[in-house]
Amino acid sequence: MTMPVIMHKAVKYAVRRDRVTEELRTFFLKNMGCARKVWNLYTDFLYQALESAGYTGGDVPEDLQKLKLPEVSSLKEKYAYLKEADSLALANVKLNFAEAWKRFCGQPDHSSYTKRAKRRADSGTEPLSFRGLTGMPGFHAKARGYFSYTTNCQYPADSNSLKNPTIRLEQGSLILPKRGKKPPVSLVLHRPLPESWVIKNATVTMDADGRFFVSLGCEYTLEMDISLREAALADDASVIPGLRFLGLDYSNPNFYVDSEGRKANCPKSYRKSEEKSARLQRKLSRMVKGSSNYQKMQKRIAQLHGKIRNQRKDFVCKEAAKLASEYDVVAVEDIDLRAMAQALHLAKNLNDNGFGMFRSRLSHKLEEKGSVLVKVNRGFASTQTCHCCGHVMKDNDHLGLAVREWDCPVCGTHHDRDMNAAINIREEGKRVFLSYYREWIAKNQLSRDRAQKRSAGRRRKKAA
Predict the structure, then answer these.
(1) Less Cβ around it within 10 Å: N or C end of the chain?
(2) Cβ–Cβ contacts within 10 Å for residue 405, how many?
(3) Per-residue pLDDT at 21
(4) Backbone angles phi and psi of 357, in degrees to 5
(5) pLDDT for the residue 337
């Protein structure tokens, strides 16, 4: 049973380097700089309001939670150069800042500080204050690489068709707002955009080595198979035997080990380039800071890290697409990757393999297929449980990370630690699949309803 479902997806294209004129580069940097300026003005406005209210931490007072930000038009009166930027880009900055402040107010903890704030307090550079609270919106510094802006696509109000939008692709080039009659932006169209897809917004970014990219946020209708969705809502367990399940156990050296005994064998892109990166960093440290050679070396280092990032992304995307095409449901353990990255012996490999990105990609691929990525509770004893007899090893049985194989004291089965955990995760995924899918559908619908309410509120405000 299929049903048309509205989906959203972003497609990222690179701007042709040989077609980036000085005028186009100035246009991009001007919009990015104005967007960064507006964000910093809102940040300064927020900090002044918090200082005036005497806020130092803890729960945010209700009047501050509903703090009204100044309109972008008032900022343009004070800073005339903001009028040269795309107005929709600046409006998006205000929406994003308001969302960031709302997200901070909704946090359960308003007393923990970032590591950077603690280091500065320990060194005597800056005392602890509300500015260093975890999740607090902060200033965007040009030196820290905040080079991006987002603009929206608008369609003629007097027509029901989707013709002549302000953002569109024409013969391999991109038309952007505020460009006027200037030449369009030439893109590297590695994959053409389907004609049925509707462009909603465009985000222009610049990476560390000066390359520009455009990410097009699109909306399209997908004929999705909703058989599993209907079975989950009806609690129909008869579909379980016909589904292809796979369990994945995170493995620091191998990326993952699945319930069929296969290992992903992550290429470890950073590890392979670590020696070259260290050599370039040593050369950089011997150069005069700010000199021409210093800047050239910085660009070489940025290019190397860009290559590492692309290698990691390529592996993750291909691996996620392969598993989504072969299996109906994939179960993984809901491990806290951010907490694991704090461990000295695990952090570098964990940040190198991109397992969090892999889970996100796999979840999206399965969602397009009409399924869902099942995240098994991290408290489930997948490693200590024998998948043959169900015996659970106790804490004093010394199954530490160094123990890669063990024998069950009840049935005598010899287990590979990771494969045994993957099998247990697969079986637990089978058990909770229907209930997990129902909860996922409810949360997804709630977020859609909230988005529709926000959109309707903005339309009412605009009409007024």
Answers:
(1) C
(2) 11
(3) 94
(4) -65, -40
(5) 84
E strands, 235-382, are: 245-251, 255-258, 329-333, 373-376
In a 3-state reduction of DSSP, which class is residue 247? strand
Tokens of 80: 């005339």
CB within 8 Å of 236: residues ≥ 6 apart: 230, 434
Evaluated on CA atoms 138, 144, 149, 150, the torsion sign reads negative
464 contacts: CB under 8 Å, gap ≥ 6 = none
Structure tokens at 301: 């280092």
Q: Which residues of the chain are modeled with pLDDT < 50?
A: none
Q: In which region does residue 354 sit, left (phi positive, over 0), alpha (psi from -120 to 50) or beta (all else)?
A: left
Match 């007393």 to its residue by tokens.
111
Residue 11 and residue 187 in contact, taking contact as beta carbons nearer than 8 Å: no
- Read off the pLDDT of residues 151-210 as tens digits, 9 standing for 90 and up: 999 987 765 556 678 999 988 899 999 998 899 999 999 888 888 899 999 999 998 888
Q: What is the pLDDT of residue 397?
A: 63
Long-range contacts formed by 233-239: CB under 8 A, 24+ apart: 233/438, 233/441, 235/434, 235/438, 236/434, 237/434
Q: Both tokens of residue 283? A: 């050369």
* Confidence at residue 162, expressed as pLDDT on a 0 to 100 scale: 60
The values of phi and psi at residue 273, to 5°, are -105, 5
**Residue type at position 205:** T
% of the chain residues with pLDDT over 90: 59
Helices and strands counted in the chain (H then E): 12, 13
Supply the DSSP string of 147-198, one letter for each residue: -EEEEE----TT-SS--S-SSEEETTEEE-TT-TTSPPEEEE-SSPPPTT-E
Phi-psi region of 383 (alpha: psi -120 to 50; beta: other; left: phi over 0): alpha
CA distances from 78 to 74, 81, 87, 93, 95 (A): 7, 9, 15, 17, 20
